[in-house]
Write a structure and sequence with these properties.
Distance between the termini: 78 Å
Strand order of the largest sheet: 1-7-6-5-2-3-4-8
Number of strands: 20
Largest sheet: 8 strands, mixed
Radius of gyration: 28 Å
Shape: globular
Strand content: 15-25%
Helix content: 40-55%
Length: 722
């Protein structure tokens, strides 16, 4: 066994310049016999990176002691006000059991969970929980979040402190930006003194001898539940199996040869293999935040080996910038030549440059790729210049956008492999557009990787969901009923008039539905609810997104929030004054409340956001699923996300078309509530629906048309017109 003092250990490590896992954490762990760790959060997803070092650590006779924070739901968080208590311990035990069960049900996390259980059973891992009460400075609802690690080989010590968590995002190069400072016992007296202080600090914590902190053993029922999954005789073979899986993943990755380069995770590898088995044509229906972009980069890497030219299509200039960065980062070592089209890049049509760029490459050429916005790619000039053929690998991000009337012409292009990406590939209320997309890409690759699977695998953050019913005021209710009556009269006249009347009145019918939906989306009662929710729940340093419907509502909500006494409120929309990029940078750094319209729906990555307040009553699944995805992205210290949803509901005594009001709101509540850690959150809404005679299961018919097309809105028309 190597001695710690034989390792080339730096005084500090910073991602992404340093690969903390491979340069520091894994070799030091492999040379150690003892590991003491005080850390805010712990996840067994560390073992997706540390398999070989873990086996060596166990072979060394290693022992690991961990001190972690309990992770409680929003409903249980008041237990933190009084520090450690029997009630708080029970809540923590329930959360640990629930999280462990989720790992056991996940194809990605089952083997790491069994290994963790086996190491606890073998006595290799011991874990305690740390609680901070009001006596520790009078700041309630705090978590023990110190981060110190102490490794020893019996003679030498290494201490590290910093922002790193033992999680996939904390250690991997493709995860969060982290840094650690390192002290070793063999360098100088100053470092030796620092190590002595940290060792003494940890020992006192472990003995429950530190002021203001209660350190207790893992609850017995949680420990026994974990141990029940142990397979001591198999854990080592599970390690070998995961090593083989990681080697297979390396074969797909464009970054496998880089120090700390990214590898596809289990669900990404499964999707790539299924796509290949399907003839390399299909759509990945994967949740927002689950890594669709990197999955596509792996497919592009495979395409380069096959001598193909990737044509990557994106719906916005923002995504154009992000994809350009991703492509150049992933393929910087291969000498990628990238032609960017759209978003201010116009040289693709000069001297017919695109035609030569998309021709079939010869075997000794460096890789070439084309990146374009949908607006540019759907132009006559682009399609005319593109050298079509089986050598083109078409990759479409937010592939549902290709089904809009203005962009469907792209799908007349002749290509070879086709890969579509979308959390919601079916276009709401537009069967023709959906059929066109599915025909061109041929299929949705099975199985989908939805939000439930992403949470179980650790790719997304678990979330709590809370519904706030609000009613239309008298004038809003009257206007709603007036538009409904107008719609029904016109609908009846249209049906009686046959095909010619349908063609003549289609736009008028749709306009009436849009006017009616706007009443719900901008209901005046939402302003008071928004101010009350934020005044009650917002804490300085948190990062909230408030989703509004339009700029008028943005200003009204912002004013209501400021009048409630809160500060740090930002606007974010396409027509805002000031620099949007700077606004997001300040928000990321300092926290606060961003009041936004739908320009945050696609492509903006703010993983530190932990709370969302939804005021825009969208019935379009693409919109509300993407909004949820913004708040579920993983980030350091983010164990749980919170979604507050304002639902417009009719008065129980309403004799008009109250069911129509609630119908459009229920679909979102079903989706959000069914995947939250507190699915009972929608119980009251179900009761309200029953009172007015609305079938909960009928909510599927309350979906509206995608706003970027004029497709079929038969389901909405049929419901209102009945």
């Amino acid at each position: 066994m190597a001695s710690l003092s034989d390792l080339p250990i730096r005084k500090s490590y910073h991602k992404p310049e340093n690969d903390i896992a491979r340069e520091f954490y894994l070799p030091v762990m492999a040379a150690s016999t003892g590991y003491d760790r005080a850390v805010g959060f712990f996840s067994s997803s560390i073992y997706l990176l540390a398999w070989k070092s873990l086996k060596q650590f166990v072979d060394n006779g290693g022992k690991m002691r961990m001190i972690c924070s309990p992770v409680l739901s929003d409903e249980d968080s008041e237990a933190l006000y009084s520090g450690y208590s029997a009630r708080a311990e029970n809540a923590a035990a329930d959360a640990i059991i629930r999280d462990f069960d989720q790992m056991m049900l996940s194809a990605t996390m089952m083997k790491p969970a069994v290994v963790l259980a086996s190491l606890v059973q073998m006595g290799v891992v011991d874990c305690k929980l740390a609680w901070i009460g009001t006596e520790a400075g009078g700041r309630p609802r705090r978590l023990f979040h110190d981060k110190v690690g102490i490794l020893s080989d019996g003679e030498n010590h290494v201490v590290f402190k910093g922002s790193m968590n033992e999680t996939w995002p904390g250690l991997s190069l493709d995860g969060n930006l982290e840094s650690v400072d390192v002290y070793v016992s063999w360098r100088d007296a100053g470092e030796q003194e620092r190590i002595h202080e940290e060792v003494e600090y940890f020992e006192r914590l472990w003995r429950d001898d530190w002021p203001g902190v209660s350190v207790v053993p893992l609850p017995d029922n949680a420990r026994h539940h974990i141990i029940s999954a142990s397979e001591v005789s198999k854990w080592s073979s599970y390690v070998d199996e995961i090593n083989l899986e990681m080697e297979e993943a390396a074969g797909w990755s464009p970054e496998a040869s880089k120090p700390g380069g990214r590898l596809p995770r289990s669900h990404q590898l499964q999707a790539l293999e299924a796509w290949t088995a399907a003839g390399r044509r299909g759509i990945l229906e994967h949740a927002t935040g689950s890594g669709k972009t990197f999955t596509a980069l792996c497919a592009i890497n495979d395409g380069f080996r096959r001598g193909e030219i990737p044509l990557v299509l994106v719906p916005s200039e923002l995504l154009l910038v992000q994809w350009e960065e991703e492509l150049r980062l992933a393929f910087d070592r291969s000498g990628l030549q990238l032609l960017v089209c759209g978003g201010g890049h116009a040289d693709w049509h000069a001297q017919a440059r695109l035609r030569g760029w998309t021709r079939k490459p010869s075997s000794n050429e460096p890789p070439r790729a084309v990146l374009a916005t949908l607006q540019t790619a759907s132009s006559d000039r682009f399609i005319g210049l593109c050298s079509q053929g089986s050598h083109l690998l078409l990759v479409a991000d937010e592939v549902h956008r290709l089904g809009a009337p203005g962009t469907r012409r792209i799908m007349a292009m002749t290509t070879g492999p086709r890969l579509g990406l979308s959390a919601t590939p079916r276009r709401a209320g537009d069967p023709d557009g959906t059929e066109a997309v599915l025909d061109y890409f041929e299929r949705i690759i099975q199985p989908p990787f939805g939000v439930q699977e992403a949470i179980k695998s650790g790719a997304l953050t678990p979330y709590a969901y809370r519904v706030y019913p609000v009613h239309l005021n008298d004038s809003e209710q009257a206007e709603w009923q007036k538009l409904t009556d107008q719609f029904r009269r016109l609908y009846a006249k249209t049906e009686a008039g046959g095909d010619s009347a349908r063609s003549l009145n289609a736009s008028r019918l749709k306009n009436l539905l849009i006017q009616r939906a706007r009443i719900v989306k901008t209901a005046a009662g939402k302003l008071d609810i928004a101010a009350r929710v934020l005044r009650t729940h917002y804490q300085v340093g948190q990062r909230w997104i408030v989703y509004c419907d339009n700029q008028v509502q943005v200003q009204q909500v912002k004013t209501a929030i400021l009048n409630s006494g809160l500060e740090d409120v930002y606007e974010y929309h396409s027509s805002m004054s000031g620099d949007r990029k700077s606004t997001l940078a300040q928000f990321n750094a300092l926290g606060g409340i961003v009041v936004s319209i739908r320009c945050l729906d696609e492509g903006v990555d703010i993983p530190a956001v932990s709370h969302a307040l939804i005021l825009a009553s969208s019935r379009n699944p693409r919109e509300f699923i993407q909004r949820r995805g913004r708040v579920l992205r993983r980030a350091p210290g983010k164990a749980l996300a919170f979604i507050h949803d304002v639902i417009v509901a009719p008065h129980a005594t309403d004799a008009g078309d109250g069911d129509s009001i609630l119908l459009g709101e229920i679909a979102r509540a079903i989706e959000f509530g069914s995947h939250a850690i507190n699915p009972a959150s929608v119980t009251d809404l179900k009761i309200l629906a029953a009172k007015i005679g609305l079938d909960w299961a009928e909510a599927d018919h309350g979906i509206e048309v995608d706003d970027d097309q004029d497709g079929d809105f038969e389901s909405e028309v049929t419901h209102v017109g009945r």
